[in-house]
Structure formats: C-alpha cells, structure tokens
C-alpha cells in the first residue's frame, strides 16, 4: 500500500498543535509533506489531509456509499445527539436530508429576508456612539434570534429567553482553545459535578434538551400546521413510507439547526466586518455599491449585489469557519491522488488548504473580493460549505444572512476597529473564529438611509 508522507511526532503533541495553532498545523505540514499528507497510522489506519483539487474531486464525486461519513463525526454526538444528520449514513442520512431540505430553499428564503434585516436593526440599535464593544456577541445575538425565529417562530416568551441564554452557555462552554480540549481528549470528558467543565456542559445541555422536548410536545398537541416556521414544516413532513420524524429525531435535528445555524454564521459575520474595516478600499467599494440602490429596496435585491457577494465569498475563502469537510472513512480500499488507501482510512478534504493554494488563488493571504468577480471556481477549488451529499443544507440561508446583516450594519453605522493589528483565527470548538475579544467602535451614524426596507 502506497501512503503519503506525514509527521512522526507523538500524537499528544500533534493534537496540542492542532488545538492551539490550527493553521500553523495545516500550513507547516502541507509545506513539508505535500498537498496530501497523513497523520498517525502506525498501529491503525491513518488520517489523511487532502489539499489537492483533483484528489478532492475524486472524493466528492465518488459514490457516497463508499464512505462512512457520519461515523467520523462521533464527537458531535455529545452536542447534537445520535440522530443528528451529521452523524447518520446511508438510507437514514438520505431520509433526514430529504425531510430537512425544503425549508432552506426557494421561496422559503424570501420569508426570512425581512426578518434578518429587522433583527439586525433591533440588535444594533443598542450600540452607543464612541463606546468600544466586542463585535462577536451582537453577531451571535443576531444569528441566534434569526434561527430561533426561523425554526420555532419564537421571538418572545419565557421559553424563547431560556433557549437564547442556554444555547449561548452551551457554545461558550466549548468556545475557547482551552475548553476545546474536551472535544479532542476523551479522558477530559469526566462529570465531576456542576463546577467541573464537562459536568457544567452536560447540565446546561440537559436544560436545553428539556426545553426542546417541551416545545416539540406542545406543538404536536396543538396540531396547528398553518404556521410557517421550520419546526411546523418538520412536524408535518413525511418520508416515502409516510412516516414522520420521532420526537428524538426532531430534537437532534433541531439542536443541529440551532447550533450550526447561528454559531458558524456569527463567526463569518465577525470576519467580514473585520475585513471591511481593516481594508478601507473594501469598505469604500461596498458603500458605493449600496448607495446605488436608493431607499426601500427589497432585501432579495440587496442579496444579489456583486461586490457584497464577493466580500462574503472571500471571507469564507481566506479563513473558512470549518477548516476541513466532514471526515470520510473508507469502507473498502480506494485509490485517491495516486495513493492506495485501505479500508478504515479517514479522509479529510481540507477546505483551508485548497483555499490557500497559490496556483488557484494568487496572493492567497490577501483579502481580495475581486477574485470572485473575475472568475468562477469549481466545487473542488472553493467549497466552504463542504460538498457532495454532506454539503451544508443551510448554506443558502447563511449566505443570505451574511449579506443582509452586513448591508444593514454598514449602511447605518460608521464603524472602526479599535486596533489596526492583523488578527488570526483561533479555535472555537471544532471551528475556527476571530478572537473573541476583537473590538470595534461606532464612530457615527451614517447620514444616508439604509437601503434595506425596514
């Protein structure tokens, strides 16, 4: 069997580097061992990072039945539950995907557009001119309110407030590089009581679980299918055999939507605001584009703006929130990129490494939205939402949210970064994000009216 090269350092040291210096881990190993490299594999099948577009194509166009894709996400079981679509394979995965996809496409997105703008205005109304603030919390507040409204139709009430608070606590419990070690070292996942890190996480998660089950059972009892929120659509959805989701399946999929539907988008928005205000030329071009619209424009027209769209694409390219796609574990031997891999090999298509290739993206470390106006990239050169049958089902909603939140904020406020120093991503659970302490300050309100119809 022909295998690629890779580091020989002890697993413990590699994991520490992956946790605390994730991009250095990928950059240094790819420079040293090539765009396909392995880690581990001495006494078990290796993990193989793939940063070659042709090899990525071979993986993403292969029959999904050749891989165990859900099995590689086992650590997410603690956060999402056994029935989450991210942990399923085969027929069960296909069934859940078919049931979950309708709320995230077509005309359904239009119903969310004005909601996104309204919530953005409500949250940013609290900003005080001249007072610095950490930018991530309001972005997380916006995306959490949007997903709660979209999923449950909730925007007030005791259960809504409890979910808002508890979901933030769940994610913050894993939100630093240090706390992320709980996900990488099983021996640390010990419940030593409510004051221990893992014990606190489990207790908060149990409270969220109870709230979700209460909502599911209450809505089932009401039997009102005239509502347009995602939970109502999922309650009424039936598979090909005419069967609905069980309460357990609904809980785990709702948890997946709530976590993935706001955590990652909040990170992407924080990055976009950083780049827009770190590079004045980017801000000037965006403002000029927004000013051409006039007042009271349909939000969906804003979402079609070319430069705004390019900013979002470049934001997700330069520092993708997920550095790799979901792991794919081979069920049988397979040749990829000229290497022969045995069954059990874990393949990691690396979004970050592909997005940093000089031959695809000249000057890859530079933020240049124009590159997305000048050419189109294949789904093996640009894939921030993953690919094949594991592509994020909420990708269209996430992009719509990014565009409308950015347009609303930039149109209403003159913002400034409190520090001109460049920043780099840090680990936040299994994702990468801007440092939590990144601050901005609102200098003034913009004189022009927002183009968004409010």
Please report the distance between the alpha carbons of the first and last residues. 62 Å
Stretches where pLDDT falls below 50 for ≥5 residues? none
Tally the helices: what do you get? 19
Kindly identify the CATH topology.
Cytochrome p450
Biggest sheet, strands in spatial order? 1-2-8-5-3
Overall description:
- The protein has 454 residues and is an alpha+beta fold.
- It has a single domain, classed as Cytochrome P450 (Cytochrome p450, Orthogonal Bundle).
- 48% of the residues lie in helices and 9% in strands.
- The chain has 19 helices and twelve strands.
- The protein has helices at residues 11-20, 22-33, 53-60, 77-80, 90-100, 107-124, 136-152, 158-172, 181-184, 197-222, 230-236, 247-260, 263-278, 280-291, 299-302, 306-318, 351-355, 371-374, 395-412; strands at residues 36-39, 47-50, 67-68, 133-134, 328-330, 334-336, 339-341, 346-349, 413-417, 426-428, 431-433, 439-445.
- The chain has a five-stranded mixed β-sheet.
- Strand 1 (36-39) and strand 2 form a beta hairpin.
- Helix 8 packs antiparallel against helix 10.
- The radius of gyration is 22 Å and the shape is globular.
- It starts with 10 loop residues before the first helix and ends in a 9-residue tail after the last strand.
């Amino acid at each position: 069997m022909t295998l690629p090269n890779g580091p020989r350092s002890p697993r413990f040291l590699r994991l520490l580097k992956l946790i605390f210096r994730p991009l250095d881990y990928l950059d240094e190993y790819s420079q040293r061992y090539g765009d396909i490299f392995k880690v581990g594999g001495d006494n078990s099948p290796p993990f193989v990072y793939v940063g070659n577009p042709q090899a990525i194509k071979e993986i993403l166009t292969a029959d999904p039945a050749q891989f165990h894709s859900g099995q590689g996400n086992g650590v997410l079981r603690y956060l999402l539950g056994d029935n989450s679509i991210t942990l399923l394979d085969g027929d069960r995965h296909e069934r859940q995907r078919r049931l979950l996809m309708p709320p995230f496409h077509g005309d359904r997105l239009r119903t969310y557009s004005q909601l996104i703008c309204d919530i953005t205005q409500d949250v940013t109304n609290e900003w005080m001119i001249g007072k610095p603030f950490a930018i991530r919390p309001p972005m997380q507040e916006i995306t959490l309110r949007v997903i709660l409204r979209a999923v449950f139709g909730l925007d007030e009430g005791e259960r809504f407030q409890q979910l808002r608070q508890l979901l933030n606590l769940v994610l913050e419990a894993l939100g630093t590089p240090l706390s992320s070690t709980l996900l990488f070292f099983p021996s640390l996942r010990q419940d030593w009581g409510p004051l221990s890190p893992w014990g606190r996480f489990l207790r908060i998660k149990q409270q969220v679980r109870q709230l979700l089950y209460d909502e599911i059972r209450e809505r089932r009892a009401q039997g009102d299918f005239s509502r347009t929120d995602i939970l109502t659509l999922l309650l009424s959805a039936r598979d090909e055999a005419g069967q609905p989701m069980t309460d357990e399946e609904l809980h785990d999929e709702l948890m997946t939507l709530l976590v993935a539907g706001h955590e990652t988008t909040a990170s992407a928005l924080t990055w976009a605001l950083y780049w827009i205000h770190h590079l004045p030329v980017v801000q000037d071009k965006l403002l000029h584009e927004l000013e051409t619209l006039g007042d009271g424009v349909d939000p969906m027209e804003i979402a079609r703006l070319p430069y705004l769209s390019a900013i979002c694409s470049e934001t997700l390219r330069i520092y993708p929130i997920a550095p790799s796609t979901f792991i794919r574990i081979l069920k049988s031997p397979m040749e990829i990129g000229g290497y022969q891999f045995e069954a059990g090999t874990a393949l990691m298509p690396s979004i970050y490494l592909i997005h940093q290739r000089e031959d695809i993206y000249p000057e890859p470390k530079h933020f240049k939205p124009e590159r997305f106006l000048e050419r189109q990239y294949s789904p093996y050169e640009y894939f921030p939402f993953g690919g094949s049958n594991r592509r994020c089902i909420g990708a269209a909603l996430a992009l719509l949210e990014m565009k409308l939140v950015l347009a609303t904020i930039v149109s209403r406020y003159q913002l400034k970064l409190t520090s001109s120093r460049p920043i780099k991503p840090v680990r936040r659970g299994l994702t990468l994000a801007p440092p939590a302490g990144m601050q901005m300050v609102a200098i003034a309100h913009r004189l022009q009216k927002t183009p968004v119809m409010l």
